Structures are given as structure tokens and as C-alpha cells.
Amino acid sequence: TSPFLTSLSLTLLHFMWQGLLVAAVLKSALLIFNKNRPKLRYAVSALAMSVNLLLPIITFVVIFQTENSFANTLANSVALNEFIQELKQPDTFFSYQEFIALLPSLLPYVAILWLATITLLAGKLILEIYNVNHLPQQNTIAPSQKLQTRFEELAKQIQVRVTPRLLISLKVEVPMAIGWLKPVILLPANMLSGLSTPQLEMLLLHELAHIRRHDYLVNFFQTLIEILLFFHPAVHWVSKQMRNEREYCSDDIAVQH
User: Fold this and answer.
1) What are phi and psi of 196, to 5 degrees?
2) pTM score, two decimals?
3) Any bridge partners for residue 188, and if so which?
4) Cβ-Cβ contacts under 8 Å for 109 (sequence gap 6 or more)
5) Tens digits of residue pLDDT in 181-212
6) How does pLDDT run across 158-183, given as a tens digit for each residue?
7) Could you give the C-alpha distances from 67 to 71, 78, 106, in angstroms and in order?
8) Residue 117 to residues 2, 77, 123, 220, Cα–Cα distance (Å)
9) 180-186 LR contacts (CB < 8 Å, sep 24+)
């Protein structure tokens, strides 16, 4: 009978159509904007992701204001009391009217299930962040002086405010830019011998571009929205578009330098 849980459940149900609408608008916008303009496409995708967060908040506030008294009325309704009395009788069969009367009392359990799921997903995210942030301390070595000098030159060239640490990792398989306040770039050891100098510099510039754009922090908040709205496929599609355009933006910065 909690108005809070009832309002939250209704908000989640309303977001099913709201999320589809946001994805449809974003799809139309991406079809209009040229693929050679990744910054604009990224901005639109990020806006759509922000709207996905704002819509449930606004919806909840609106519903909660009207649901507070309405939920109490439903809890004490005659139909629900009669249904409870019938449950006590043997050989009771469900009718359509009884099912409708039961719905208001079942609605809050949608919110309870949502709260339980996001708690588990949040715990998983904390564990993943912990593991990622400890990668620089696991099986890493310092780069050669020549590579370190060139890396610092590239960092100045791309105008990164805080020059990150560069480490050669024996554990990761792809380059990674980790952290926000004290960023670290991990470079797989096998890439030192498998790439030419221009290719290696392009790769470093790409990761430096992520740091300059604060993509690690943005991706963190983006992941939080994905957790809160985990149940909607359209949200994951919007998030995927945002990540794709983010990579293209970093590629463009690397090419410019």
C-alpha cells in the first residue's frame, strides 16, 4: 500500500513507451546528421541519454503527487476487502474482476524487484571498477625512455591538462585509458612489436583524446543510467550509439594531430 512504491512502479511502466519514443527521435536525428560529424552525433546521443534519466524523475514526481492519497483509497477499497475474504474460502476461482481488484496491491512489487535488481547491478559495477582501477598495479612495467619522451610530447601536442602515466601491461589485450583525476594509459605489451611507430602514435593519441574529453567520467555516469534503466532495450541501444560516436570523436582528434 506504499504510495512511494506504487508511484515508482507506475513510473517504470510509463518509461516503457517513453524510452521507445526517445530512441525513435534519436534514430531520426542520426539519420539526418552526417556520419562525418561525430561531435554533433555524440552530443545528440548524450542528450538522449540524459532525457532517459530525466523523464522517469519527472514522471515520478507527477505521479507521486496524485498517487499518495489514491493508493490509500485502493488499499481500503471494498473490492479488495471482498477479494481477501474470498481467498479465505476453499475452492476459490479467480475471475477477471477479482484479478483487476488485485492489481493495485501487486503493483508495488514491480518496484521492489527493480530495487533489488539495481542493487545487485550496482554491486557488480563497484567490483568491476575496483578491478579496473587495480590493473595498473598488476603485471605492468614502465615504458622505455624513448617511448616515454615521445608520449609526453604527444600529450603536450594534444593539450591534455594532466599528463597521464603510461604503463606497459602484460595483462590487458587492448589499450585502456583509466581514471579521471590521476589518469593512466595501459598499453598491451604485444602492441610494441606488432605496430609501426605511426600506428603506435595514433593509438596513443586516441587514448589521450579520451582523457582530454573526460570520457572515463562520462562513461561512469552513462553506466549508472544503464543500471537504473536496465530493463529497457532502447536505453542500451542509445548507450551503444553514444559509445560508438565517442570513439569516432577520439579518432578525429587523433587524426588532427
Assistant:
1) -75, 170
2) 0.82
3) 169
4) 9
5) 889 999 998 888 878 889 999 999 999 999 99
6) 988 888 999 999 988 899 999 888 89
7) 6, 18, 15
8) 19, 31, 10, 19
9) 180/214, 180/216, 180/217, 183/211, 183/216, 184/136, 185/211, 186/135, 186/136, 186/140
Q: How far is CA 33 from CA 27, 28, 29, 236, in A?
A: 10, 9, 6, 21
All three cell numbers of 132: 579496473
Sorted by sequence, the CB contacts under 8 Å of residue 108 that are 6+ apart come out as 1, 2, 5, 6, 8, 9
Q: How many CB atoms lie within 10 A of CB 223?
A: 15
What the block records as the C-alpha cell of 65 is: 503527487
What's the grid cell of residue 55? Answer: 523523464
Q: How many CA atoms lie within 13 A of 13 on its CB side?
A: 12
**Per-residue model confidence as pLDDT tens digits over 80-90:** 565 556 555 55
pLDDT (tens digit per residue) in 106-129: 788 899 999 999 999 999 999 999
| Cα–Cα distance, 34 to 251 (Å, whole number) | 16
